[in-house]
């Protein structure tokens, strides 16, 4: 078994992909004159007619944005040749907001209408603006096993809030999102709402700082969620999908953390945690400590109160941003860092393999994956053969070039020891783009006899990515080390983590999903060429089409 900090579930044409749409665009922006200060004649620069102006009551004037996109946000307000009135501010204030949590269905389609599902495009199942604060959703959501609920973390002023949403089909659209019918932090109200068919959202305040790196991890067997924050604390929430979400504390059984439910994992407060991963076989929650710590630690959840291990130094200061991969079968854990502190010839980006079963994390090996730097190194992935016999499989990682910041693909094999230990570099590394860029986390799936690897790069350059960011695929990855991509497609700014869906011979049913990391602002002509904002993307596994 290999566990990571993400979960995805889907069924046939009703597969649902959840996209975090960055909360930089708002709708229904308004600014009003004070009564009696409206001139009889007003010249209005309507920002290409993206706003409307109308007389209101008591001599007021209302200016309203007509769109949800970035073009209607931050519209400047100015007064010319009038001294009897003034705007209430320099810009139109943000309004009720664009959708920031969206589900799509009818996914197995294509523009020619020959997919397994009917039609030529996916449809929106529901779209909500779920914000209760101003800082947005920085990490990934996670679904309940039946797909009827999902959990996600929102940054708010002065803290972090865990939300659990029970959605309702057909509510809202991307440009005109709905708000959950009931939003509550009270258990009785939550229970009452769940007994109806309405949408419901439960809000549980966690710590007093934000969460910029830690996506929630759910232990489905015990209906428990783990998530960290930017202050070095790890939280455990019970009843997350099948009850009323509540923090476990020092008064719980088994006990967890202090009376507020905060368990300090970092050496001191002020250092963020990565996404946690629970190893079910060893009853340990593994998590990275960023900031100046650069440590890999685990929390023993088999004892009461839960205890925190000493740390294994896996990264130099401010060089660890990604959560670990835990192999519960072979009892090893892997971390990826942009500066692993390797000495001799200079420090290097690195993959570090540690032992899970030891009383404290113990390093088995660390391997360089190019020049150290400031850009993030994301999680790698294993070939399918690794899960059957580790010594016949490989670990792929995207690092840097030996002397530059160009995303570069590396591969490592394993010996037949117990546990299997990562060996030296296998084959010649492959430069994915000649631009200074980052890779997405890597994803893999064996479909039939073809084992495929998927990656995204944020900046183009060279023959393997000739545009402003790409998605790339590599076939036959358990054979010889790839010397080129199998397919490449332009994706503005590169990709988020890539979700791989389904092994199927039906048209469009074997797909991948991701969101783009950049969006043009020049026009509303589409996602891939000059479109506004960020885009959810579906491509086929075999051809990236």
Characterization of the model:
The structure is a single chain. This protein is mainly beta and 545 residues long. The protein has a domain at 380-545. It contains one helix and 38 strands. The protein has one helix at 187-194, and strands at 2-3, 17-19, 30-32, 51-55, 61-65, 101-105, 123-128, 142-143, 149-156, 159-166, 182-184, 200-205, 217-219, 224-228, 233-238, 246-247, 263-264, 277-279, 284-289, 295-300, 307-308, 312-313, 325-327, 332-337, 348-355, 362-371, 381-382, 395-400, 407-414, 422-425, 430-431, 443-447, 450-457, 470-475, 487-490, 499-501, 511-515, 536-540. It has a five-stranded antiparallel β-sheet with strand order 1-23-24-25-26, with no helix packed on it. A five-stranded mixed β-sheet has the order 8-9-10-12-11, with helices on one face.
Quick overview:
The chain has about 550 residues and is mostly beta strands. It is built from one helix and 38 strands.
SSE blueprint:
Layout lengths: L1 E2 L13 E3 L10 E3 L18 E5 L5 E5 L35 E5 L17 E6 L13 E2 L5 E8 L2 E8 L15 E3 L2 H8 L5 E6 L11 E3 L4 E5 L4 E6 L7 E2 L15 E2 L12 E3 L4 E6 L5 E6 L6 E2 L3 E2 L11 E3 L4 E6 L10 E8 L6 E10 L9 E2 L12 E6 L6 E8 L7 E4 L4 E2 L11 E5 L2 E8 L12 E6 L11 E4 L8 E3 L9 E5 L20 E5 L5
Parallel strand pairs: 11-12
Antiparallel strand pairs: 1-23, 2-6, 3-5, 4-5, 6-7, 8-9, 9-10, 10-12, 13-14, 14-15, 15-16, 15-17, 18-19, 19-20, 20-21, 20-22, 23-24, 24-25, 25-26, 27-28, 28-29, 29-30, 29-31, 32-33, 33-34, 34-35, 36-37, 37-38
């Amino acid at each position: 078994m290999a566990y990571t900090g993400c979960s995805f579930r889907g069924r046939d044409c009703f597969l649902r992909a959840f996209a975090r749409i960055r909360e930089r665009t708002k709708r229904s922006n308004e600014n009003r004159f004070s009564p009696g200060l409206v001139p009889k004649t007003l010249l209005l620069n309507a920002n290409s007619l993206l706003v409307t102006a109308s007389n209101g009551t008591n001599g007021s004037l209302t200016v309203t944005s007509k769109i949800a996109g970035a073009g209607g946000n931050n519209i400047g307000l100015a007064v010319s040749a009038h001294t009897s009135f003034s705007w209430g501010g320099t810009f139109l204030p943000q309004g009720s907001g664009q959708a920031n949590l969206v589900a799509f269905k009818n996914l197995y389609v294509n523009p020619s209408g020959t997919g397994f599902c009917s039609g030529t495009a996916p449809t929106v199942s529901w779209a909500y603006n779920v914000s209760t604060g101003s800082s947005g959703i920085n990490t990934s959501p996670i679904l309940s096993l039946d797909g009827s609920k999902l959990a996600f973390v929102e940054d708010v002023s002065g803290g972090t809030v865990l939300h659990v949403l029970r959605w309702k089909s057909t509510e809202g659209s991307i440009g005109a999102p709905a708000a959950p019918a009931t939003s509550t932090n009270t258990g009785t109200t939550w229970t009452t709402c769940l007994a109806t068919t309405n949408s419901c959202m439960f809000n549980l305040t966690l710590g007093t700082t934000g969460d910029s790196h830690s996506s929630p991890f759910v232990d489905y067997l015990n209906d428990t969620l783990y998530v960290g924050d930017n202050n070095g604390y790890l939280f455990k929430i019970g009843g997350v999908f099948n009850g009323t979400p509540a923090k476990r504390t020092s008064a719980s059984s088994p006990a967890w953390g202090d009376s507020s439910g905060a368990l300090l994992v970092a050496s001191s407060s002020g250092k963020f945690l990565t996404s946690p991963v629970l190893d079910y076989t060893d009853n340990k929650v593994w998590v990275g400590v960023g900031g100046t710590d650069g440590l890999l630690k685990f929390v023993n959840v088999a004892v009461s109160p839960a205890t925190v291990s000493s740390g294994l130094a896996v990264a130099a200061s401010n060089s660890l941003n990604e959560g670990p991969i835990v192999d519960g079968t072979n009892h090893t854990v892997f971390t990826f860092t942009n500066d692993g502190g390797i000495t001799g010839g200079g420090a290097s980006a690195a993959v570090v393999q540690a032992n899970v079963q030891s009383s404290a994390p113990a390093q088995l090996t660390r391997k360089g994956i190019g020049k150290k730097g400031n850009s993030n190194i994301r999680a790698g992935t294993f070939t399918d053969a690794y899960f059957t016999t580790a010594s016949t499989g490989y670990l792929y990682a995207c690092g840097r070039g030996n002397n530059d910041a160009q995303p570069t693909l590396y591969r490592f094999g394993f010996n037949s020891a117990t546990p299997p230990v990562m060996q030296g570099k296998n084959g010649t590394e492959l430069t994915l783009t000649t631009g200074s860029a980052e890779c997405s986390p890597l994803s893999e799936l064996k479909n039939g006899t073809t084992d495929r690897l998927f990656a995204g790069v944020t900046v183009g350059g060279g023959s393997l990515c000739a545009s402003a960011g790409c998605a790339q695929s590599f076939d036959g990855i358990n054979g010889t080390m790839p010397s080129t991509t199998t397919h490449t497609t332009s994706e503005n700014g590169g990709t988020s983590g890539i979700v791989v869906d389904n092994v199927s011979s039906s048209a469009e049913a074997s797909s991948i999903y991701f969101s783009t990391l950049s969006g043009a602002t020049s026009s509303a002509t589409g996602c891939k060429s000059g479109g506004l904002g960020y885009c959810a993307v579906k491509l086929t596994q075999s051809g990236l089409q």
